[in-house]
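Example record

Each entry pairs one chain with its bound ligand, hydroxy diiron-OXO moiety.
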Amino acid sequence: MISQKLFEELNKQINYELYSAHLYLAMAAYCASQDLDGFTNFFKVQAEEEKFHAMKLFDYVNEMDGTVKLDGLDIPQNEYPTILDVFKSAYEHEKFVTSRIYFLSDIAMEEREHATISMLKWYIDEQVEEESTFSSIIKKLERIKDDSNVLYMLDKEFAQRSFTPPNEV
Ligand code: OFO
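C-alpha cells for the complex follow.
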C-alpha cells in the first residue's frame, strides 16, 4: 500500500513534469525568437514528452486510489544568452529531475512498494535518455561554435523530430 508520504511525492513529481513542459515551451519560444524553427520544434516536442510523463504519473496515482493534487507552476526562464545556454540549462534541469526520480525510488524501496518501484523503473530509463540527448547536443553545439551553416543543418534535423507516445503504457 502506498503511504501518504509517497503519494505526496508522486503528486509533487506530476508538478515537476508539468513544470518541465512549461520550461521547454519557454525554451521553444526563445528559439522561435531567434528564427530557429527546427530548435523550436525540438522543444515543443520535448514539452509534449514531459506532459506525457506527467500524465503517466497522474494515471498511476488514480489507479492506486490516490488523489491527484496539482500545484502552481514557477515562472520559467524566458531569455538566454545563446542557444548553447538553452541546452546547458535543459541538461541541468534533467539532472535535477533524475535526482527526483531516484528520491522517489528510494522512498518506494524503503516502503517495499513494489508496484511503484516497477512503475518508476520506466522513468529511470527515460532519464538516461533525456540526459544523454541534451549532453550530446551540447557537445555538438560546442564543436560547431559560430558556424552558422552547421547550425542551420542541425536546425533542419530538429525540424523532423516528432512526438510518438510509447506504447507500453
Ligand atoms: Fe520528464 O523527463 Fe525531462 O524533465
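The chain has a mean pLDDT of 96.
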